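Form P-L/3: holo structure prediction, ligand zinc ion.
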Amino acid sequence: MRGTQTITQMVKTDLNNFKLFNNSPKVVLESHYFSAYRGAPVIRFSVDNRSFSFGMLFIQRGLDPNNESHQLIVKHEYGHFLDFWKIGPLAYLAAVGIPSILSKGNPNYYELKWEASADNNVGIKRKGVSQEALQRGTNYTNKFSPYHHLKAAKDKRKQTQSYTHIRLVGNSATFVY
Ligand SMILES: [Zn+2]
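OUTPUT (holo model):
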């Protein structure tokens, strides 16, 4: 029985069940203090009874491991985890963390760009949230991503390097492909 376990026993159980690349949200929700999900460390802790993500997952206690909507919380927070490592801690705080706290209670919460980006990362499709809203989310976090800008710059350079010659007409140069 969980209720009769000592803290030491619960920590031992968490250690025994610990797999860094565990891909079961149920296993995460069965943990007492810590776990992991797809390479993300998980701590069972929340602020204001809400789960959140900041470089790792903080999942509130008291969730039902067999409840699908509770399992969805783990997946959604993992979507935020991916955005954290995509845009870095400062941009994450400014563009995701703080807006998310301020928009608590918004009836269209999961249509908000920073939330939609997290859902889109992990393929969560919610009732009433369109594919366009999900894409708007991904475009939003891309704007803050150094990797995204680097890739765009590389693609552009590749394009300009594939010309066969440059045509000079008056003062203007045209790349001929
Ligand atoms: Zn969220």
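COMMENT: The radius of gyration is 22 Å.
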